[in-house]
Design brief:
The chain is mainly α. It is built from eleven helices and five strands.
Length: 309
């Protein structure tokens, strides 16, 4: 190779490499039509039953539009990670990295972002250089009084299952077990499988656990009214609905009643008040959760109507 051509090659190689890694957005044609077609086939087979045939939402949130961009605005690597590692929900981790990138290409096409000549890469480093524009706000805000406020970090189902469900179950447990009795020894062997409860077993007494569970229920009430929170299906939580506010107040008042009963250290009194706790849960569930669109309230099809009356 002549010296001039060799020199030109050395100059061009780093230039092309830098161009390939230059920051881009999804408006710059970062996927191909052929790739989106492959992604559409995977989506139809693995995703459409929950997210809808056109990714507009159903049992699960929409994968297009402002709501999606607001949550996932940022590098595309995070979206591909989410698809590959946690989807589909009933078979997590079964998609390859390439399939996850193809599905994202289909999502971009559905969102009317332009196609290009090159395919969307599946490599993490390359995906980090491509962003989805959106108002993904994670920083705290400050009120005029200087008090910080925080955006929701999870949807309503995650809040329920992470806080209210375990707290309520600790209280319901008093029906069967006396909190004043010492607990049985806990088996922490690996054969028992994962349990977040075991790690705290024996740290607090039974009655202390009931106290803390009642407090947790009450502290959750303001979280039920956090602006911007969405349901598992992507619908906004109706924080301004008078009935939703009424049920939130009922949650708070019930938590205080449970705590007061727990202070008596009387198993029968706490067991009696669990009926009020069950009614409190039922009132909200009947209005906003158990829609009976399908055969039973627990049928997954009912998720599509949650957070709406």
């Amino acid at each position: 190779m002549p010296k001039a051509a060799l020199l030109l090659a050395f100059v061009l190689v780093p230039s092309l490499s830098m161009q390939a890694q230059a920051p881009r957005t999804v408006r710059d044609g970062v996927y191909s039509d052929a790739q989106a077609a492959r992604g559409a086939a995977v989506y139809k087979d693995k995703c459409a039953s929950c997210h809808g045939p056109t990714a507009g939402g159903g049992l699960a949130p929409p994968l297009t539009g402002d709501a999606f961009a607001g949550q996932w605005g940022g590098p595309l690597s995070a979206i591909v990670d989410k698809i590959q590692l946690t989807m589909p929900a009933n078979a997590m981790g079964t998609l390859t990295r390439a399939q996850a990138a193809d599905v994202l290409a289909f999502m971009l096409q559905t969102s009317k972002f332009p196609a290009g000549r090159a395919e969307l890469p599946s490599e993490d480093a390359a995906l980090k250089t491509i962003t989805l524009p959106g108002e993904h706000v994670v920083a705290v805000k400050t009120t005029p009084a200087g008090v910080p406020t925080f955006p929701p970090s999870g949807n309503m189902a995650q809040l329920m299952r992470g806080v209210l469900f375990p707290a309520a179950n600790m209280i319901f447990n008093v029906q069967r077990y006396d909190p004043g009795q010492p607990p049985p020894k806990t088996n922490l062997s690996k054969e028992q499988g994962f349990s977040w409860v075991d790690w705290g077993a024996g740290v607090y007494t039974g009655w202390e656990i009931v106290d803390y569970a009642a407090v947790a229920l009450g502290e959750t009430a303001p979280l039920m009214l956090t602006p911007g929170r969405r349901c598992e299906n992507g619908k906004p939580v109706p924080v301004n609905d008078p009935e939703w506010i009424k049920f939130t107040n009922e949650l708070y008042e019930t938590s205080k009643a449970v705590y007061a009963a727990a202070q008596t250290r009387n198993q029968e009194k706490v067991s009696d008040i669990t009926e009020r706790l069950a009614d409190m849960c039922l009132h909200c569930h009947q209005a906003y959760r158990d829609k009976r669109i399908s055969r039973t309230p627990d049928d997954p099809q009912n998720r599509a109507a949650r957070c709406s009356k």
